Amino acid sequence: MLVTAVAGLVLWNLASQPPPRAPDAWPAVEAAARRATAALPAEAPVAVRSVPSFTAPDAYVFALHAIGRPANGPSPDSGLGDAAPPAPDEAAALLVVCDDRFAAPTGKPCNGPAESAWLGEERWRLVDRFEAVPDRVLSIYLPARGD
After folding, report:
1. What CA–CA distance (Å, rounded) separates 26 from 93?
2. Hey, which residues does 124 pair with through a beta bridge?
3. What is the mean pLDDT of the chain?
4. Where residue 126 falls among pLDDT bands split at 50, 70, 90?
5. 3-state secondary structure 69-92
6. CA separation for the pair 36, 71 (Å, rounded)
7. What is the pLDDT of residue 137?
8. Is the pLDDT of residue 102 over 50?
């Protein structure tokens, strides 16, 4: 009886293992991180934020770290996202992940309008913007002041 129970547990554990490779989104997130890194100043601090702010940009922060590019996501004390963008003197670059699945809370779609409304004043200039994965737009900004 005990042998049967242990064998059953072993079989169940083997059958319920996670896939050996991350599902669909990870390769696209990693490719987006590589594309973003190519547009960023070397070795400069990078801030990663999300719109709307209650979504987390953690996958992109992790992908940047995984390819050797340190990045700072929102502080843990701020909830899932910071309410305001960082000042240009706090980071040499800003990556904004806009999740179009949540366009209703922002009142604006991603791919420009939602990001611009969140950024407010023109302290940052857009360098690149692209759909990283379906319904997620990644915008890359550098400070508007002279580089």
Report:
1. 23
2. 143
3. 82
4. very high
5. CCCECCCHHHCCCCCCCCCCCCCC
6. 12
7. 94
8. yes
Angle between helix axes 25-38 and 58-66 (nearest 10 degrees) is 70
Beta partners for residue 72, in sequence order:
47
Distance CA 146, CA 88 (A): 11
Number of neighbouring beta carbons within 10 Å of residue 46: 23
Structure tokens belonging to residue 100: 């179009």
Cβ neighbour number for residue 62 with a 10 Å cutoff: 17
At 42 the pLDDT is 80
Q: What are the backbone angles phi and psi of residue 136, rounded to the nearest 5°?
A: -125, 120
Name the residue with higher pLDDT: 2 or 81.
2
For the chain, which residues make up each domain, given as ranges? 24-143
Instruction: Tell me the backbone φ, ψ of residue 56, rounded to 5 degrees.
Output: -110, 135
